Automatic annotation (TrEMBL), chains A, B:
Protein name per the record: Transcriptional regulator, TetR family
Region (Disordered): 1-24
Keyword DNA-binding: yes
Record-annotated HTH tetR-type domain positions: 22-82
Signal sequence segment: none
Lineage: Bacteria, Pseudomonadati, Myxococcota, Polyangia, Nannocystales
Length: 200, 200
DNA sequence: GTTTTTTGTCAACGGCTGTTGACTTCTACC
DNA sequence: GGTAGAAGTCAACAGCCGTTGACAAAAAAC
């Protein structure tokens, strides 16, 4: 009854979040990318994403519409294989291997997000289409004959398999930096495919 | 009111399931393996597994205790790389490639189940430990020096990456049988690692 | 100074999840 | 024939999920 002047704002000392729509949007996107990449689509909850961004799940919906739309926005970013596809073909294997064995495992990269979409009935198709369009096709075009698409697919498989066991199914055998024996083997294998592997 | 003699069994024409505990148990296990392999741990529900086995979810719990224990039982089966690790080293690459490009994609194999455990907080550790103990270690022992563990890891990465894009993230570039260019390239790559790939 | 729009919170909804306990029904043993 | 126990069904629990609409407050527009 004896309510004094302001029933609103019962909160104690929490400073109200600064109202910056653009930054809030990017914070949501970053939190979503991290959680999609580490836990997968099904295991990354809207409440968890919202909490990581410092806001309320309802606000995530208002910014992105739905969880699926948030996922689509989270993968609208390049995978980053493009920078390696330059004119220097002799060392591209080592450069790619060095890159994937140097980048921090906990980073929110698009490849991890896409690999985690495996089997998810809602987003699996999106992931495969994006991989085909943004990785396989440019890679095959850059490789050229013979068997351009097969060699591009094999490169993607080697990279994905290695990264999977570094990031999502972390195995001891795949740990370590770019100076390990595995990184060296991987570089040699990638280069072997780029150069055009012989018939079996 | 005028209920006649038997209030039980209101079911119409459904024949009561034959009471065979051993077969029921194996049917549950098979259904679980199929669904874990195709949809992943989080997306394979207990009701779905039970329905696929033709029973009730409560019975699944009575047989296996919990979903996690069911998963543990589902991966207690060999991955099947063992048969290739014989004395014939010259053609093992082609044999493995032929095997993975011939086996039906929809089959419930342990490798698919384990790959789908990526990021699942409940079962990720189990999957990595099992892969290390049942694949990496025997493979490294069979390969021998130099860099046995690195080469074993690379073989697992190539196989897993390829199978991932055939089964869980089905891409057009990975479709097709054992006579495709990709299968041939993969065989050559595997053999190259088995023979001991050169330094990068 | 008032109104409108944007930015954010809150409580709740229906639906799905794994799991539980009480209950039937069939089978095998004495 | 009677009974103990195995095999299976059923309904319900608590908890989490994505999503919604009503509301509060800050900022902007008039």
């Amino acid at each position: 009854m004896a309510q004094r002047k302001s029933p609103t704002r019962p909160r104690s000392a929490a400073p109200p979040r600064p109202r910056d729509a653009e930054q809030t949007r990017s914070e949501i996107l970053h939190a979503a990318r991290v959680l999609f990449a580490t836990r997968g689509y099904a295991n990354a909850g809207m409440r968890e994403i919202a909490a990581a961004a410092g806001i309320t799940p309802a606000l995530v919906v208002r910014y992105f519409g739905s969880k699926r739309d948030l996922f689509i926005a989270a993968i609208e970013s390049d995978i980053g294989l493009g920078p390696f596809l330059g004119p220097d073909r002799a060392t591209v294997g080592r450069h790619i291997a060095r890159y994937f064995f140097s980048k921090p495992v906990r980073e929110a990269d698009t490849l991890s997000i896409l690999l985690h979409a495996a089997g998810e009935p809602e987003v699996c198709d999106l992931a495969t289409e994006l991989l085909a369009a943004r990785v396989i096709q440019p890679l095959a075009r850059w490789l050229g004959p013979p068997r351009a698409e097969a060699r591009a697919a094999l490169l993607l498989a080697i990279i994905s398999g290695t990264w999977l066991f570094r990031q999502a199914l972390p195995m001891r055998a795949f740990a370590g930096g770019p100076d390990t024996a595995l990184a060296s083997c991987m570089a040699a294998q990638l280069q072997h495919v780029v150069d055009g592997s012989p018939e079996a």
